[in-house]
Amino acid sequence: MVYNFDTKEKNRCFADLHTHTTASDGLLTPSQLVRQALQAGLRAIGVTDHDSTDGLKEAMAAGQQMGIQVIPGVELNTQVDEDEIHILGYYINYDLPWFQDMLATIRHARWARAKKMVENLRRIYNFDISFEEVEQEVTEGAVGRPHIARVLVKKGIVKDVAEAFEKYIGTDCPAYEPRYRLTLEEGIKTIKDAGGVPVLAHPGLLKDQKHTMLAIELGVQGIEAIHSKHTAEQCEHYKILARKHGLIVTGGSDYHGEKGEDMPQLGDIKIPCSVIEELKSLAQKHIPVQPCDENKI
């Protein structure tokens, strides 16, 4: 879907706060992503790779060259019961050693998980697919399900990435393997301890909507009300919910660089840059946990 807060005024500053690069499961390098943002008419983007901040320095350097503001971020995948709950973190102090150690542990678990899913696809469906082929799809970051999906597309097993998730490697599919188990509370605390602002990502995709309220109770400070997979009704619902609880309303396309009618594109979601100032102001009130502190995760 294409959703804009308000584009009537000319020369307004707009941003997309949910994007991915080759540092995780995106197709574009950080520099290519920034250039794409420029071409899409955006003034700012949030780079929020899964469990990785390896693309941030390149993205921020490219942003400085091209006049695009890059908000440093990350996307942590947490778990409550059988529900995957993604937490976006903005303005994190990503060079903290303990934070990088934690991300490295999660990324290592991603490789083992992806290998098991490939084995499941071979065992259950007798697909001619190898983990080596999946590894070839990984440019520089950690392996993820989109890399497996792209191999399935190349082999003609599915028509696109969306079908791969729907039929074979989605959460409820037989070949699916559970991820590294980071609790929702741990994910929110991790972002805050890193000096960032935790935001609940795409709540409309949750299996159980009570987990939206749980995330609010546990301390998220924003809700990604505007998302490429939300309906217009869901966008309005989550905007109202966020404002009711005094939370920041954010939005993003969840762009991975994929092409196709069913895939989100950069520029599909445009939110005012004033949201960035809200995030930055809130982050400045957080004191990052240093390595010597005993209460870090």
Q: Can you describe what's shown?
A:
With 297 residues, the chain is an alpha/beta fold. It folds into 2 domains: 192 residues, Alpha-Beta Barrel (TIM Barrel); 65 residues, DNA polymerase, domain 1 (Orthogonal Bundle), CATH 1.10.150. It is 40% helix and 17% strand. The protein has 10 helices and 9 strands. It has a 9-stranded mixed sheet. The longest helix has 29 residues. It starts with a strand and ends in a 14-residue tail after the last helix.
What distinguishing features does this structure have?
40% helix, alpha/beta, DNA polymerase, domain 1, TIM Barrel, 2 domains, 297 residues, 9-stranded mixed beta sheet, 17% strand
Short structural description:
The chain is of the alpha/beta class and 297 residues long. The chain has ten helices and nine strands.
User: How many helical elements?
Assistant: 10
CATH superfamily of the largest domain: Metal-dependent hydrolases
Report on the biggest sheet.
9 strands, mixed
Query: Taking strands numbered 1, 2, ... along the chain, how are they ordered across the largest sheet?
Result: 1-9-2-3-4-5-6-7-8
Low-confidence stretches: none
CATH architecture of the largest domain, by name, is: Alpha-Beta Barrel
Overall helicity: 25-40%
Order of SSEs: EEHEHEEHHHHHEHEHEEH
**What would the principal axes of the Cα set say about the shape?**
globular
Strand tally is 9
CATH class categorisation of the largest domain: Alpha Beta
| Domains (count) | 2
Average pLDDT figure = 92
Our Rg estimate from Cα atoms comes to 18 Å
Task: Tell me the structural class.
Answer: alpha/beta
Gap from first CA to last CA: 37 Å
CATH topology of the largest domain: TIM Barrel
**What is the strand content?**
15-25%
